[in-house]
Predict the structure.
Amino acid sequence: MALRWVAARLPPAARELHAAGHPRRLAELLALRGVESDAQAAAFLAPSREQLHPARELLGLDEAVTRLADLCARHRGVAILGDYDVDGISGTALLAAVLRSAGARVETQIGRRHEEGYGFHPVHARRAAEQGVELLVTVDCGTNSLAAAEEAARLGLALVVVDHHIPEGAPPPGAVLINPRQAGCRYPFRELSGAGLVFKLAVALLEHLGREVPWQALLRIACLGTIADVAPLVGENRVIAALGLAALASTRSAGLAALFEEAGVRPPLRAVDVGFRLGPRLNAAGRLGAAEPALELLLERDPARARELARQLGRANRERQELEARLLEEARAAIESRGRPPIAVAWSGAWHRGVVGIVAAKLARELHRPVLLLAVDGDLATGSGRSVAAVHLHDFLAPWAARLERFGGHAQAVGLTARTASLDALAREWESAAAAWPAELLEASRHYDLELELSEVGAGLLADLERMEPCGAGNEEPLFRLGPLTTAGPVRRFGNGHASLPLVASGAEGPAVDAVGWGWAERLDALPASFEVLARVERDRWRGGARLRLEDLRPLGGSAN
């Protein structure tokens, strides 16, 4: 599908920032991200701990700290239940390490995707009671788990819920709830991940106990959940991500060192390394079975055991990739068979529920529409939905929540369980409701930041772009339009369908700039004589210098805004 290229509108603040001394392109990019003054630019470009809000502004945090401090002082038992993704796993690891260092006896459990599904369930409260603890903390789940909270109360367990998901109704009874989205919470930043909230709780607890806060150790774990959960990298999340990535470069953790080796990454790390290399490996075990190996890895101190666990996660990730490739092909065909409606819904008894969310995200990007994929297991179908920027998927599906067995999530991602027999009717109703959306909501377009001359791609621009890191959701890696261009040498194929080639500006003097196209080997087979591209500028880690990472290409003269 050909994309319409849409240029961003440059705010007037770009001129003011440039006049204040910022390089022109950096000033323009800052303005496009909402930076309006030199003071805001300084804060954006130099994230620091001073930019973090006081943790005690979180509703429920003081009470949680008091309870946890008392248990630590008495060396009593605390159980932690974490969700099975990187956010829940890293938050659980962080809190377990802090509580143990403060004197508590800590038991951990990670939810089981396949046996239990997402969230806090009564069985988790019963397990905690059997472990002889006095208090249970949930991480990245629990806000809407009323039955499980009631079971915890029946068993005499105190309950602290640390979660960032949208509340669906009444809070869990008897629980201390730490969730910036809950009614009555005036915390100034609502977008913290589960691991980010645990980070705030851990800092407040250590300060309450009069202990030194190991900032780097806490930040390097909190940043994993923040980035891998695709939390918007603005505000406090940007601070946690930036400082955490810097701290990862000097980690002494045997587990993290083994994970870096297995994933083939080396410092300095970028958000993309966490999002596409470290995160998938930490997620893989929980997608295919039990997530405990990932938690164990983050807490492991023995290098030999850490390497064994990292290899185990690597094998699980390769298996996940194979399952994902098959499911992607089948789901795409199933959606096309329904005529590619404005909201795409597909299901199958042959699909692995651990990878439907990843595939839904890929198809949502590819098809420019929300995608819901469900794995059928007998009478029930469990799956995930991913959306596009213009559609708040949670709000769209909320009117059908009463007809679903389970439902939750946020604007861009939801999880749900439905009766298999109801899927046909639900899909038809969702498709019918989505048919009323205006066409521009699902427009196949690509928004780019700036038009760039090829002669600008060099060390200066690269240095400015690296100051924009960490990039991710909410602070996208800058995308540029360049052209007219032509090739200055042959296409070089490498890896599994990848290619690179040298480019020069058509009809202009200047050195060639290398460009890489991941998965572009076939697309670059027959290039027109002159063309333009959408590309990102990145550092070539192997050869040094700046290069282009191609995102789209078309013959010169294609229609654009």
About this structure: The CA atoms of residues 121 and 542 lie 48 Å apart. The chain has three domains: 55-312, 338-442, 449-555.
